[in-house]
């Protein structure tokens, strides 16, 4: 039986630990077919983070060897898109100090990316 997750947005963890999640890999075909730049807006708690994590896992060249394990039984595993493996650099802006001026924002950003 699949477990319900709360607060877990990592696609790889969701798949490996058999958590329940909304399957959205069919959208990868659409994303590959249209504009190269995407802007995702949805209300809070609508699954943006797990979806972005799924995109990251699908396209990350460093996770290429896990494709069959993570996507093999899903729609995109049975209907893979053209191979587009790239290096992924993920930055989360969560927890950045954006409300106390430009200097604090700059310091917070630099700390986040380790400059």
UniProtKB/TrEMBL annotation:
Span of domain AAA-ATPase-like: 6-113
A matching Pfam family: AAA-ATPase_like
InterPro entries in UniProt: AAA-ATPase-like_dom
Name under which the protein is recorded: Putative AAA-ATPase
Species in which this protein is naturally found: Clostridium beijerinckii
Lineage: Bacteria, Bacillati, Bacillota, Clostridia, Eubacteriales
């Amino acid at each position: 039986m699949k477990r319900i997750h709360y607060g877990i947005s990592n696609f790889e963890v969701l798949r490996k630990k058999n958590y329940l999640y909304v399957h959205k890999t069919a959208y990868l075909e659409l994303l590959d077919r249209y504009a190269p730049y995407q802007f995702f807006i949805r209300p809070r708690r609508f699954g943006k983070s797990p979806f972005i994590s799924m995109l990251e896992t699908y396209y990350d060249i460093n996770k290429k060897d896990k494709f069959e394990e993570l996507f093999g039984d899903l729609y995109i595993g049975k209907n893979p898109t053209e191979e587009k493996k790239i290096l992924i650099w993920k930055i989360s802006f969560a927890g950045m100090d954006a409300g106390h001026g430009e200097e604090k924002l700059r310091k917070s950003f630099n700390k986040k990316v380790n400059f």
